[in-house]
Batch of 3 targets.
Target 1
Amino acid sequence: MLFAHTHFLADSQLTRQQLIYLITLAKEMKANPQDYQQSLAGKSVVMLFEKPSLRTHISFDIGIQKMGGHAIYVGQQNGRLGVRERVTDVAKNLSCWSDAIVARVFKQNTLEELAMFAGIPVINALSDLYHPCQILADFLTLSENFGDLSSIKLTYAGVANNISNSLMFMASVVGIDFTLFCPKGYGPDSLLFDQALDLAKQSNASLTIINDTKLIGEQNVLYTDTWISMGDNSSINDLEPKLYPYQLNHDLVKKTGATAIMHCQPAHLGQEITRELFDSNYCLARQQAINRMWVQNAVLFALFNNK
Ligand code: NVA
């Protein structure tokens, strides 16, 4: 029982050994998909999405189908969870028929409540706090490109959000040196940062927040995401002047010596990243998208097989 989890809700809940196990399993499933064609046979997975999705929706749907399972998508037509009926009751009803829930929600609490009352595995498909499936795919991508994860220096540039939180936790658990390069006032929640610092101490990783480009130093990988996440009502006109110094562009790549850049997508070209860099050979976004399906299949396999 290496994974030994009932749910997949947050990166911070996993050990280094469990993360490496999931990445290794995803690699094995990617290399030998024929061996897993029936691994979800007879299983139905409900996908509850309170927010829009392209990659997560489609990669889960096709991934489940490739393992012989059945995916049912419930989109935004029913409004936010907890409005028409309690989240508790949604959870209890879904578990009458389905074998797992994949959920994209406005609030992490909604996932916790689903998990508490569903009695079936719940997987975080993005919340306000975390996007663990994305970051697991990103770490598979890093492993494919760099081999040893613990020697990587990774900087996230932009606004702290669900992606940077998950990166910060997974980097701290795995032992990657992680820098958050963001304007003052746009860093992570201090409780989450302190929690990640504790994990980083245990793995001997460094975890730093910087506001000034002079402090960035040499990096292997630069990562960015949208300046305005789904559910955030900030105005782009207010943000742009503060955030342009944190844009991913060829100058920053040259300054840091990074050999790869990453983006979870959707990309806002000309804002958090230039079109030239996003479309260049530095960009691993396509490989990240490919790997979404394999890591999610690994998570489903591990949850259903009590691994
Ligand atoms: N931070 C972004 C990630 C999208 C995949 C959002 O929450 O909208």
Target 2
Amino acid sequence: MTAASESKLTHNEQIKLAIPTLAGTIGATLADPAADRFCEDDTQFLKFHGIYQQDDRDKRKVGKHYMFMIRGRIPGGVLSSRQYLVFDDLATRYGNQTLRITSRQSFQFHGVVKQGLGKLMKGINEALIDTLAACGDVNRNVMAPPTPPVDALRSQMLEDARRVSGALLPKTKAYHAIWVEGVQLNLEDPENKEFADPLYGKQYLPRKFKAAFAFPPLNDTDVLTNCLGFIAIEEGGRIVGYNLTAGGGLGMSHGNEETYPRVADVIGFVTPDRIVEAARGVLTVHRDFGDRTNRKHARLKYVLEEKGVAWFREELERRIGFRLGDPRPYRFERQGDVFGWHQQHDGNWFLGLYVETGRVKDEGTRRLKSALKLIAERHAPEIRLTPSQNIILANLAPGDRAAVTQILADHGIPVENQATAIRRASMACPALPTCGLALSESERYLPDLLGRIEGLLAEVGLADNDVIIRMTGCPNGCARPYMAEIGFVGKAPGKYNLYLGGNQSSTRLNRLHKESLKEAEILSELRALLTRYTRERAGAERFGDWCARIVWQEAPAAPVKA
Ligand code: SRM
Ligand code: SF4
């Protein structure tokens, strides 16, 4: 690389090049009891270790209260009860008493202060889980369908997802040194100075990279929103391979037309024995062609959009050294989770539980956190986190059902009619007060807004409608609002852009309908649209499909205001 091209690199690129172990001075600052936070460059390295330095935005008027968000790496979202109990205990001791299920099947701790950070990280690693690469310019948590085996095939997919996750892990020694051994990596040691990750090189990726698996007809992982996707193809009762997808992603910035959400392209077909090679190949195309001069333009989706599918397939095949098969037919019909009790193929049972905005907590008469702890202690289910921020308790013996239902009832959690259809189908990102990028509320506001939308639905005779509603506090798209039938994207405090027209199978992006709406405007707009929908829908047509058929034609997307 020439000096000129190096100078155009973003700051993140330069610091990765300078300290390719990603150790920064994290170990030294961690050991310093007087420091309540890490320096700016270290906050970038910390992300690769699964940690975000944040401050409590509710308290900004009285100064900056630094705290940390820690995200687990939990491929497919599966944990043992023992591991869950460790997470519960760590959240109680060092976090804000809650666990946050993420939209990528992981858990986040929020509100951890610096004194608790090292202990919490040690605890996670002792439970044989880690947080390595949960954030940063690397492959993130790999998603897989969370529904427990009602047939043997989904178990194979989970194993495939774990293989891909393992193969794409960075190899730096810094993570183990800092969080397990509790030491600062010696940056002067030539071995550390010259370190280059065998897959990622010295500079890692230009930006984050995301992978997911899905099993048609269910698209519960929103697979097409990922940089890399594997869509299972079943023939004769076995998974014969996967359609490989690439170039999905949702993040954008208000007023910047060079950024946009994008649905992935189907590139080709790959057999199960070759998914790791294929995954590495796709990742290295991102590594080598992603834009390292502009982080807003650095995702793989822009490479796909600008160079095209034919170029991408050829480039990928050149790297992996074999030809992909042609994509096989598949069809997604729906997204979403399964709730209530269901029997597994082995005779055991699983219970799908709705978790409002993914937050596992005790609040008022609903004491979900305490209930889950008791169930994990007494009945030891396998814990599965869903991409829609819900939880599944799996592998429960038939004899456990009544006791588990009773524990939940004692803690104010029903297993039947857990929430209205729109709540069960909804998602919100954390936003305020933890997220530094939030422009408006999301997790703390959506439940109230849904209450008002429930009122509207009842008013127009659609009380049981399960329209898919997602909200984020900014346009980064963390709760995947651009795939929802109704998407709310924060624009400013109390103001949201309204997107309409996603579909139930999560294969179609919605479109911007109106900008900067306050709550009263949202409700009046939705009242008018829902009233028309009841009159104009064709048979069982869903609201999102009606919006795409009718509303999109009437109101072409408004020009985006800067
Ligand atoms: Fe996200 C940044 C939370 C899934 C796109 N995301 C953030 C940060 C870390 C804010 C920051 O950079 O300072 C948020 C932390 C908030 C907090 O206080 O916890 C955050 N993202 C989340 C989670 C927790 C939202 C949730 O409701 O669960 C999800 C964690 C998933 C996980 O376990 O790994 C989460 N983020 C997503 C998704 C959805 C997905 O991956 O399926 C997206 C859209 C898909 C995509 O990547 O394109 C997403 N997050 C972003 C972006 C925009 C990236 C871009 O291409 O422009 C940012 C901003 C950034 O990276 O600079 C971001
Ligand atoms: Fe924060 Fe925006 Fe992501 Fe919400 S969508 S968590 S506000 S970055």
Target 3
Amino acid sequence: MNFQSKKPLTVGFLDSVNMMYDRAIDLLQLPDDVAQAVRNCNSTYEVQFSVRLRGELHSFKGYRSVHSEHMEPAKGGIRYSIEVNKDEVEALAALMTYKCALVEAPFGGSKGGLIVDPNEWEPHELEKITRRFAYELIKRDLINPSQNVPAPDMGTGAREMAWMADEYRRMNPTDINARACVTGKPLNAGGIAGRTEATGRGVQYALQEFFRHEDDVKATGLSGSLEGKRVIVQGLGNVGYHAAKFLSEEDGAIIIGVIERDGAIFNEDGLDIEALKSHLIARRPLDTFEGGTFVQDGHAGLEHDCDILIPAACESVITHTNASRVQARLIIEAANGPVTAEANDILLARGRTIIPDLYANAGGVTVSYFEWAKNISHMRFGRMQRRQEEARSRALFEQIETLIPGGVDNATKQKLECGAGEIDLVRSGLDDTMRAAYIAMRDVRAEHPDCPDLRTAAYMVAVRRIVSVMNLYEL
Ligand code: GLU
């Protein structure tokens, strides 16, 4: 079972991305030849290899697509799924180009995929498969700290990144920047604090920023803050789980529904996300979860009444077949491409607001950028200044105490006294990035009153930056 509807799509994923891109091009009045140069996918490498497992050779097919090298390295995840295909990796690579430009991560766009069901293989078998795939990519500089830097995506995580990084190091023992060849690694293998939850954290920061703009909130028909908003999440994987966790624990949102592959679970009083996640990790069926009401037809859960819908599973789940029934006022695309171009228009015509994937799920690559920079600099963030900041705050508090005895309470002292560690800096950098990108989209909309939505604005910001780096045209 997968998350998508069984009904066929009328437009492929890559075409859908290009249709969205073309809207921005029209508004920017970019000449066709320049538009084409940016739109083109530079290359897609397809590889087949065999690995001896369980006594016989098993063949695997994988891809690494490089959409743009206007900045290098090219950046983007590697996914493991039986659905992987060329159209999908090319669409995802293009999204990475635009996403990186929007959040000012200095990378081109790339994406990879391996046709494999990771649940079918034991960890030691997956390690063999991953190392072999990595070997094929490393040989062609498709994993390389200065050329192409993969990261986790659907079906992969820190463990796979550690295997890939190790394979690169073995093949390039003298490369001093070897660790920067992939991001999303475990902390002890050169990762960075906060990368695992980064995409979900980015979704939270994106929503927080959206709710700071009263006029944008009003346009959805909602009001106030995130507090008490009724939220449905599709997919309780890494992104959906962290988004649901942070929004409910820190912003007072109520997660009234979670849609999974084998159905959906609803509870108007709010689902216990930790309990549900543990239930799913233990591979217990969703219908045995006691904290809510089970609904067999998970896909229909997207049409359930709520304030905010967070598709966090995969592409093309809201299409021309169900967009007219989606009730959420606000849809935030935590996955890449969950709303097709056709569905996008149907939703817009119905007055729905979409916070687009380019922006909403950019938290992952933003923190990947921090990790890559940390690896290149060979130093953990905060190492130089943390104690200096601490000493300075202490001196300040001591001075205040001499002037106003008892002037600063202990809780405030404790909070302000310690200097910023890596996790604080990562969060601050991510929050700042999400705020700045939102403001850039708003500015473009203010400049172009005919810009219909945030998605077109996101593409416009991205394309302007890419074109200026390519030095092809004065915009
Ligand atoms: N796979 C993630 C994405 O789609 C992260 C990419 C990265 O960190 O390079 O944005």
